[in-house]
Amino acid sequence: TTKKERGIIMEINGKRIINSIIFILIVFVVYFILMRLIKMFFKRADRKNMNTEQKHKIQTILQMVSSFLKYAFLILVILVVLANFGVNVVSLLAGLGILAVILGLAFQDMIKDVIAGVVIIMEDQFKVGDEVKIDDFKGVVSKVGLKTTEITGKSGEIKIVSNRNMDGLVNYTKSKE
Asked: 62 or 104, which is more confident?
């Protein structure tokens, strides 16, 4: 290559780098503004007369939304920067889609547990301290997680149940309220 051709190539690469940096800065600003708006919304909701459990629920939702947005914006930045440098992102997206399907099938039970855990928390089906019965086991809920729930029996035994298997749960505390 001649000196003139190398100069043109460097100029093109310089423009791509500058465009990528500008795009990253714009995405960062949009992400920052969006996160501030979401946090303000949740703080306003948090100011109302809420008990500790409701505040924890709002914190959980905020963390889930923040995490989702962070990874969505990160993937967007990576794909646009790669496309800016001439990488075929369509085939990359197709590969990511296939990978997502494979991972979804491999981890479908865990995904069901997490979705069920989110539903349990969001719908306030039961909480720590509630007296419950599942199958033939009766006890008090000692921990509610995204994947499992722990129930402590009267003599101290602990039953750990996957959240997707909470069918037929009887909540005695809810019936007293």
From this structure: 104
The DSSP letter of residue 20 is H
List, as own/partner pairs, every contact residues 61-66 make where C-beta atoms lie below 8 angstroms and the sequence separation is at least 24, other chains included. Answer: 61/122, 62/38, 64/118, 65/38, 66/35, 66/38
- Best CA proximity match to 138, nearest among 108, 168, 114: 168
Between CA 42 and CA 58 the distance in angstroms is 7
The proportion of the chain whose per-residue pLDDT surpasses 70, expressed as a percent, equals 85
HSE, CB side, 13 Å, CA atoms: give it for residue 162: 10
Give CA–CA dist 59/38, Å, rounded.
12
Task: Name residues whose C-beta falls within 8 Å of residue 51's C-beta, 6 or more positions apart in sequence.
Answer: none
- Look up residue 22 and give its two tokens: 């500008």
> 36: number of CA atoms within 13 Å, CB side?
6
Instruction: Give the pLDDT confidence score for residue 138 in this predicted structure.
Output: 94
Q: Which amino acid is at 80?
A: V
Contact 67, 83 (CB under 8 A): no
Pick the more confident residue, 127 or 49. Answer: 127
What is the pLDDT, as a whole number, of residue 175?
61
